[in-house]
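Renewal narrative, Specific Aim 1. Our central claim is that a sequence can be written position by position from structural information alone. The example that follows is taken directly from our test logs and has not been curated for this report. It begins with the structure tokens describing the chain, in the order in which they were read.
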């Protein structure tokens, strides 16, 4: 086995281990902290919870979730492609197994693990967000409303993000239709707070997922304008150990040619860059911006699985 093949195999193995870890975290967060309080969240997990409570626990969440994933993937096969489908089947299968195991474990308890509903659902949402974020970072997918969004984006101009928000809100809102003994006013009084919890949990999951993904890739980009550009570039190379790109520019007001330094660094290194510049040229003009997804030597490795090239 060649070194490149071995490295590729180890990278794939690590990805699958982390995907499984992330999905297990998601399953624990949902089954231990959210489901016992009868909160409906977005995604196919929420659809599974709707069926679970509508049937009095007769049909497990995992069964409905997995069945819906398979149906959607069958419908989406020609639209989203084989690679997306195969990757999603793996994630959906692991998610169904994990949720099935933890659902049977935690729903047998006489009372929720954490009695306070607010604290419980927030903790569960954080667990779920970290789990999904971990799986996404390593090229994982659990399907769900991702499939619906991918299908819609292929045949219309509606964005994936907007589609997922609409679908998730409708799933949570459907909890008001669950069986309830009482008047319509009592139904509203009981179900509306649960709907609000569901929307809050769905938002927290999305927020934590984005936070984890973006924090993992976050870097800073500097654009530095200074007459002492060569000294600054040397010091950045020597002290910050970061590369510098020199661009040609022209000040339109002064009509003078200028040099522009472009530097990328980690977030924790940004103070060092600023100090270097200000110590050399206090009058330097600097712009600093957040950058998500800097790939290459000294930064992140692009985790995109490429299809093998066909040999002639």
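The sequence written for that structure reads:
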């Amino acid at each position: 086995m060649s070194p490149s093949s071995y490295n590729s195999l180890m990278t794939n193995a690590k990805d699958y281990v982390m995907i499984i870890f992330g999905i297990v975290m998601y399953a624990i967060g949902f089954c231990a902290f959210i489901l016992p309080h009868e909160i409906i969240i977005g995604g196919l997990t929420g659809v599974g919870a709707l069926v679970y409570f509508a049937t009095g626990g007769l049909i497990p969440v995992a069964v409905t979730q997995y069945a819906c994933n398979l149906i959607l993937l069958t419908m989406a096969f020609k639209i989203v492609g084989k690679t997306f489908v195969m990757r999603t089947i793996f994630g959906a299968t692991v998610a169904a197994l994990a949720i099935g195991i933890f659902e049977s474990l935690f729903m047998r308890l006489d009372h929720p693990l954490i009695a306070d509903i607010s604290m419980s659902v927030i903790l569960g949402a954080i667990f779920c967000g970290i789990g999904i974020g971990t799986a996404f970072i390593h090229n994982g997918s659990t399907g769900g409303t991702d499939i619906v969004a991918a299908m819609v984006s292929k045949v219309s101009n509606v964005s994936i993000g907007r589609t997922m928000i609409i679908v998730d809100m409708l799933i949570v809102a459907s909890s008001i239709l669950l069986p309830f003994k009482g008047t319509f006013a009592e139904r509203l009084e009981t179900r509306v707070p649960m709907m609000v919890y569901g929307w809050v949990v769905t938002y927290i999951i999305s927020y934590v997922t984005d936070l984890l993904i973006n924090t993992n890739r976050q870097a800073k980009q500097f654009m530095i304008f200074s007459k002492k550009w060569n000294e600054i570039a040397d010091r950045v190379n020597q002290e910050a150990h970061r590369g510098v790109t020199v661009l040609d520019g022209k000040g339109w007001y002064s009509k003078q040619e200028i040099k522009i330094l472009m530097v990328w660094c980690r977030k924790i290194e940004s103070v060092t860059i600023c100090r270097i510049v200000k110590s050399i040229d206090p009058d330097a003009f600097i712009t600093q911006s957040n950058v998500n997804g800097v790939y290459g030597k000294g930064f992140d490795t692009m985790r995109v699985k490429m299809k093998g090239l066909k040999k002639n």
